[in-house]
Amino acid sequence: MGLVLWIAPVIAVILSRIVNNTKQLHIISVCASFIMLLAAGFVTNSVVSYGTLTYKFFVSAFYIDAVSIIVLDITITIGFLVSIYSIGYLDEELKHKKTTSKKIKFYYSMMYVFIFSMVLALTVNNIGIMWVAIEATTLATAFLVGFNNDEHALEAAWKYVIICSVGIAMALVGIIFLHLASIDVVSNENALQWDLLYNNAKDLNSSVLRLSFIFILIGFGTKAGLAPMHTWLPDAHSQAPSPISALLSGVLLNGAMYAALRILAIVNRNLDDSGFTGKLMIAFGLLSISAAAVFIITQKDYKRLLAYSSIEHMGIIAVAFGLFTPLSVFAGFFHMINHSFTKSMLFLASGNILQKYNTRKISKIRGLLKILPVSGTAFLIGLLAVSGTPPFSIFASEVNVFLSIFSAEHYILGAVFVLLLAFIFAGIAFTLFRVFYGEPQESQYIRRGETNKPGTAVLIVLMLIIAGTGLYMPGLLKDLITSAQMIIIGG
Amino acid sequence: MENYYDLLSVLILLSSFVLVANKKTNAYIKTFRIQSAFIALTAGIMGWSSAVNEGKYDILIVCAIIVALKVIYIPHLLNKTYGNIEYRIEKDFFLNIPILIIICCGLVVFSYFSVSNIGTLTGFHINHQVVNSFSVVLIGFFFMISRKKAIGQIIGYLVIENGIFVTAMFSTHGMPFIVDIGIFIDMITAVMIMGIMVTRINVKFESINIDKLSKLKG
Amino acid sequence: MSWLTPDYLMNWSIIAYLAAAIAAVIFYGRPHLCTLLAQSGCIIASVLGAASAFSMLLTGREKLIISQLETSIPFISIDLTLDALSAFFILILSILVCCVSIYSFGYIKHYHGKRNVSAFHILYIGFILSMFFVFSAGNAVFFFISWEIMTVISYFLVVFESEQDGNEKAGLIYIVMTHIGAAFLMIAFMIMFVFTRSFDIFGSSDAIPDFAKNLMFIFFLIGFGVKAGVVPVHIWLPYAHPAAPSNVSALMSGIMIKTAIYGLIRFVLCYLNIQDTWWGILILCIGILSAVLGVAYALMEHDIKRLLAFHSVENIGIILIGLGISFVAFAQNNGFLGSLALAASLLHTFNHTLFKGGLFLGAGSIQYAAHTRDIEKLGGLIKKMPVTAVLVLCFSLAISAIVPFNGFVSEWLTYQSLFTVIVPGQTGINIISILSIAALAMSGALAAACFVKLFGISFLGKARSEYALSANEVPASMNVGMGILAAFCLTIGIFPMFFLKLIDKVVFNISGIIVTGELQGGFLMAWYPVSVSGNSITPSAIFIASAIILICAAAVIRLIGGKASNRKYGTWDCGFGELTPRMQYTATGFTKPLRIVLRILYRPGRALKTEEGDSSYFPVSQKYSVWTEPVFEKYVYGPVLTNVKKFSLRVKLSVQTGSTHAYLVYIFITVLALMLYNRLT
Amino acid sequence: MINITYLIVQIIVVIAIAPLVNGIIKKIKALSQKRKGAPILQLYYDLYKLLKKDTVVSDTTSWIFKAAPYIVFTSSLVAAMLVPVTTMLDPIWLAGDLILMVYLLALGRFFMMLAGLDAASTFGGMGASREAMISSLIEPSILVSLITVGLTAGSTSSYQIMEYMKYVDTPLIRPVYFMAFIALFIVTIAETARIPVDDPSTHLELTMVHEAMLLEYSGRGLALMELGASIKQLTFITLLANIFIPHDQLILISGVGAVVLSVLIYVIKIVFISILIAVAEVSTVKLRLFSIPNIAALAFILSFIGFMQYFVLGR
Q: Which residue in the set A59, A152, A166 is minimally distant from B178, CB to CB?
């Protein structure tokens, strides 16, 4: 059954190369993602019952434990929601002649290449392959970022490819050093297998490992959008079609963070102390949050603003993982989940807004709640949620992050952290709250009403999720996160 | 054997200096080709010894791939891309070449300073080679920064990739085979994608000067 | 009588609120029914809530757990726990909600057919419930959650009429400031958790070291101060309160800002157990500043609701003066004085809820009838809306602390606490206390001036515009709602003892000292012995004496003067002929002397625009305008905001330059820097 | 029961003496101007005349206008009841609280200002506006000086303070009382609409404050207003007289005789202070309206320094 996870996207890619009819493409995509959703449910279930799953396959083993299953479930759920949303989105684009059915074909195939590589990255045991898969996600999304094929999109895509490739190349350097550190411990056939490295972490060469971690952090940090390597992120997120932005923000960033986390676990186990890694992670995290805080307050483009908010949240997650206490790692995972759902909802809503108003400029959007009742509400709720307002889910995880910071006796850090988040809220409120009220300009000829029906349904589902998980955590999820935290912390 | 490796690592490093010193785009491609050839040679020697000593052929296969890809295909691809793009004379670098070279020397010193302490790994006298090859990574990176044109950036990226590969070679006799293959696939895809983009950029912006791509700010 | 227990009633009260909200959702399409059901639901719920709180206070139980639900998210649980303090605040809340809901029957009518009434009711009920939870939260995280929900919902209510000028900005300032304030609360709660490993509000703070306690105090002060609207973080208040619909403003000003007072008492006094005198002194200073500046700025406002909002700042200042003395006294282990001052400030909290709620409702009535909030456009309303006029007059007298009303009683108690705190020898506290007395006196007099302006200009004289001419008496339900509040004001003013007894239960619960034991003398009398002899007031006696004197005076006059005839005639016009409404004193004119005297606070300006005619002696038109500057916004917040924006822009453009090379340089430098760091450590 | 008797005595004394003070002051002013002046009892005649007269009421006014005289009168009288003319009279039933007294007077002032605005006349508004300013500025000095004195006595009750002052040796040469006395004297002048703050005898719009608010009144309304004002004036004078110049310790007999004697001495003191006020009025000129803050500040500073002397410096 687990195999379906890898086969379904491949089939989807192949089919979408063959089929020409847009409607059939939609069906294929939804079916594929639905099947993956079922498979993910199945795999989750088996992980919960049996612990780690390993599939010997080809040369490398697939290795699924609670850590991967969390990120995997996020990926697949959001993938499913995005695929539903895309139906309405692409139809609308098609209606306004902004795209062609040929490009839709391309869109779907690239999207499933992306999902495939994402799934691959999350399920392989071999860190080298993981790197390959993550680099593949960059390449798969490169053209999706440039999907609109105008100057801006092209510029964003170019920066995306160059910066992410270079960044991720640094991660490769790190992986080589990791290999070097383990050369005496792990035989060449099993080189870079995560479980072996992890189990034998104590015997690795510490000084090489430290160097390795630096490169890993910079490399995957680039991909995860940590400042100062975040620079590609606002461009790519703002220029990509909104469903793709949702995937980038809700899925891709997690993937990079996941890879960094895996290696973080090894390094910390080796060094027997999270001081070295913690300092770096926290520094990057805090820098990201501050960068987001500074950049958000004068932001003029709402999708860029959301992108900066993603940087902020990746910063929060980095801080949480950097602290590396059981509490903080738990909070980090929890925050990762919440951020993914909230941010994808925001990007999906922003897609509807973009289609309706045809502009990314905040100043040209007024009367959102009237024009787009559901998307507007989703956007508003999303903004409140994303800035940590209770009772939405991000608040719940932020409280846990705060607590873990304070519990680790980083008082000043904690205070700065809380205030920065409040400052970001202020920035978002200052720049973005005005769009909900008033009336759009006469010259924009905007008609009331939602156009993207499936998208609207998705938004409602997401709203329910983020509101629901704010005050309730399913027991299954809690178990999963706890076991993931146990895996990372060890013990 | 180590002597050959030492020599090759220095040659590879040297080729990257030559790259930085070059002014013209076709010269970049040529230098890259030479550098790749050196790398293929290194891989060949290594592969040969491992085939003889351990009966493993994967490094030899990698060597073959390098020859096919980096020495033949990618330079060809780049030449083609370059040929498609109308030639314009534009200053390609931000700083003048002597300064660039001095900075690159600094980078080598820096990488010696920061990598040489990574501790003695028993059984490997690799530090110097690693320092050299790691310097190639940094120089490649720096090359990307110093060149304005898109092609320069692609080449810089490839040099980083070369540097990484050599580092891997010298430090651990290469990555696991499957990883290497994956990396090659990624690399070739990346280069192709970049190539396509360069063409598009040339159409849209009527230049491949990356500095013109600065509409997305803030 | 199990159904009379507080928890049982409390649960039903919550259920009634929820039912009202559900009814509001179900009857989405039928606004009249929706209003009827939702507001009646609120009335029932608030009566239940009041009953519950009342019985809680009477039973004198220390602590009562209503419900505790784990959410399975670590550290987040729904925890409703009552003690006397919460019960007291819930009592205030319920009384106000009951009156406001009665009022809303009529008031909401002008929304029917124009707006989404259902959404309004849901927000309204959500707002009430969130305050309910704030008062009854048993752990700090749940408190924070309720607190933030309260903020957010009230934000939506503030922007409910977002199409009107300035409401958006009002909402924005409001939510930004309160959210930043809440961040400080969050930090304080985190410190609390770190040392005690618990979020239990009722727990002990012994494990917290002194420096952390001091920090927590500062953070609580900032966090709650923003919500309470104390100077200098008051600026959101005069924007947000006018922007909200009037029944909501009544709730916001009447009770929402009191959540901050609740928070200060709950966390600083009950939880942290005051440990330093400077805490109290700091609060005292803030109180003085707020009391004087609040009323001073109120004086210059001509928008009724803005004026009232500034008065909220003033009254919070007065409450804080009481609270400050109480903190000082507790820090000096003077339990009795602490309790007295606490009782004073709690009573003032209650009183302010009553009269400020009533005043905002009155402002709503004026707006409902005359469609404007600008005092300058009103006039003569006393003849059009006689009942409203009487009620607003009552509230005006109450807020100016004039005698037979409740405002005086609590101010008197505050004076008495200040009086008692002054002991020869302790320099700092004495000086601050005497300044507090001066501030209280001045703010009382300025408030009186302000409400003379409010009432005199808008209700008396002649109508100044069409708006005022076309006004009519508002629906009876609105007056009933206000009437109940006015009745409370008068009752507390005349028979304060009964309410003091209630407050005493709260104070006893906190300090273990009964104040009314000392304040004895039957239900009519408040007698309080100080060192030498008793200071006391007997409002009821005064009331009776006044009544007797009034009757006697009338009788004597009748006796001497006989039956006199009244002749109606025009107002004295110096022989110029008919007086027009434009010749009346305006609100601007009325406050001019004070504007000039206190110009340092207002930085007033004026301009005369003349349109020249044929000769300079015959100008076509002249336009004279005066204005006052919003000093805090202009000289504090404005520059800060501009600089933040400037900084952001500068950093943004110099970091995110759009150049790929720059971006690569960042990564490159990061690589080098980290390698260096690794090498050097 | 005996308390009520005392109160009735107090009320009668107050009502009887209040207009006299006006008469004395006017007489002294007239004498200083080499005029004969009106008889000392002129205000009594005026009040009687006014009570007999019909009233003219503006047609723009409301019930506030009609009610105001009664409220002003009542509040002044009740306030006066809180300040015993002699400690032989114990107003314990009303407790004699000074803070209460100040706020009772505020009630009267509130309605007087409203009445000024009610007739839609410019004069009324002007008077109310100026009154609002003066009262806001004077109020802190009143309370600070009264409370300072109260603090030395340990009570805010006028009766208790007077009781305490009996045993203070020559209070007026002590810094705290001297300062408080001067402050209260200034306050009295300001509160009772006298030169230099206000001119009671003018009807010129530039200078009117108190009179401007009463401009529309006639007949019994005016009578009540005037009487109320003079009672208020007497209340302040009583405070000055009985607190700072205590006399009851001199009276050694008890019973009705003591009360009568005490009231007689009281009247003498009132006359003395009236003369003081008259002298002050004669020797100064009416200030500009915007110089009044200076006087208010002076009063406040005096009371504050008095407070400092005793409670901070400990003298």
A: A59
**C652–B210: do the CB atoms touch at under 8 Å?**
no
HSE toward the beta carbon, residue B92, CA cutoff 13 A: 23
Query: Which residues of chain C are within 8 Å of residue B114 when distances are taken between CB atoms?
Result: 675-676, 678-679
Determine how many CB atoms are found less than 10 A away from the CB of residue C673. 13
Say whether pTM exceeds 0.90.
yes
Burial class (CB in 10 A: 0-12, 13-18, 19+), C570: middle
Number of domain units in chain A: 1
Separation CA D190–CA D184 (nearest Å):
10
Contacts of D122 in chain C (CB under 8 A): 583-585
Does the N-terminal peptide bond of residue C529 adopt cis geometry, omega within 30 degrees of 0?
A: no
Provide the domain limits for residue D238: 2-312
Residue A431 structural domain: 2-489
Helix (H) or strand (E) holding C70: strand C63-70
This model of the complex carries an ipTM of: 0.92
Distance, in Å, from the CA atom of B29 to the CA atom of B22, rounded to the nearest integer, reads: 10
From B57's Cα to the closest Cα of chain C, the distance in A is 35
Cis peptide before A373 (omega within 30 of 0): no
**B218 chain-C contacts, CB cut-off 8 A:** 649, 652-653, 656
What's the per-residue H, E or C state across chain D? Answer: CHHHHHHHHHHHHHHHHHHHHHHHHHHHHHHHCCCCCCCCCHHHHHHHHHHHCCEEEECCCCHHHHHHHHHHHHHHHHHHHCCCCCCCCCCCCCCCEHHHHHHHHHHHHHHHHHHHHHCCCHHHHHHHHHHHHHHHHHHHHHHHHHHHHHHHHCCCEHHHHHHHHCCCCCHHHCHHHHHHHHHHHHHHHHHCCCCCCCCCCCCCCCCCCHHHHHCCCCHHHHHHHHHHHHHHHHHHHHHHHHHHCCCHHHCCCCCHHHHHHHHHHHHHHHHHHHHHHHHHHHHCCCCCHHHHHHHHHHHHHHHHHHHHHHHHCCC
CB-count exposure of residue A412 (10 Å: 0-12, 13-18, 19+):
exposed
Tell me which residues of chain A, numbers 387 to 446, contact chain C at a CB-CB cutoff of 8 Å. Answer: 387, 389-391, 395-396, 399-400, 402-403, 405-407, 409, 411, 414-415, 418-419, 421-423, 425-426, 429-430, 433-434, 436-439
Digit-by-digit pLDDT tens for chain A (491 residues) are 677 888 889 999 999 888 888 899 999 999 999 999 999 999 998 888 888 888 776 656 788 889 999 999 999 999 999 999 999 999 998 988 888 888 899 999 999 999 999 999 999 888 999 999 999 999 999 989 988 888 899 999 999 999 999 999 999 999 988 988 888 888 777 788 888 889 888 888 888 888 899 999 999 999 999 988 999 999 999 999 999 999 999 999 999 999 999 999 999 998 888 788 999 999 999 999 999 999 999 899 999 999 999 999 999 999 999 999 999 999 999 999 999 999 999 999 999 999 988 888 999 898 888 889 899 999 999 999 999 888 899 999 999 999 999 998 888 999 999 999 999 999 999 998 888 988 888 777 788 888 888 999 999 999 999 988 888 888 889 999 999 999 998 86
Rounded to whole angstroms, the Cα distance separating B164 from B133 reads 7
The answer to whether the Cβ–Cβ distance between D106 and C597 falls below 8 Å is no
For D4: left if phi > 0, alpha if psi spans -120 to 50, otherwise beta; the answer is: alpha
C-chain CB neighbours of B142 within 8 Å are 668
Query: What backbone phi and psi angles, to 5 degrees, belong to D94?
Result: -100, -10
Please state, in angstroms and rounded to a whole number, the distance separating the CA atoms of residues D242 and A310. Answer: 76
Question: Is the CB of C162 less than 8 angstroms away from the CB of A234?
Answer: no
Answer whether A229 sits within 8 Å of C75, measured CB to CB: no
